[in-house]
Write a structure and sequence with these properties.
The chain is an alpha+beta fold and 107 residues long. The protein has a four-stranded antiparallel beta sheet with strand order 4-5-3-6, covered by helices on one side.
Length: 107
């Protein structure tokens, strides 16, 4: 988990904080507002931005996952992976991104 500046995708601290105890989280959240960032790697997000990309995701059964969230432009499908994969933007020239590195703002 990363602490992000409220209503942004920017890190709240120069070094991203990864895992820390619940009491520390409570301490930070009592004093300021934050977004949370989810570390990618073992978790991959398929970011779908229109109907053509959604059709492709459905054809390949990638819409069946325990965590799905609406995004400003479409949907995010969260998948756990066993082996690392590459981030790909505009996969197959569709409005579909596969986000596999860095972090994503938690829903």
């Amino acid at each position: 988990v990363y602490l992000l500046k409220a209503q942004t995708k920017r890190l709240a601290f120069k070094r991203g904080l990864r895992s820390f105890p619940e009491n520390e989280l409570r301490y930070w959240f009592r004093r300021r507002r934050f977004n949370l960032g989810i570390l990618l790697g073992e978790v991959v997000v398929i970011d779908v931005d229109d109907d053509s990309a959604m059709s492709w995701v459905q054809e390949h059964s990638l819409d069946s996952t325990p965590m799905i969230a609406a995004s400003p432009h479409g949907m995010h499908f969260y998948h756990q992976v066993q082996e690392p994969i590459r981030t790909q933007i505009k996969y197959l020239k569709l409005p579909l991104d596969i986000k596999a590195t860095g972090y994503i703002v938690a829903p």
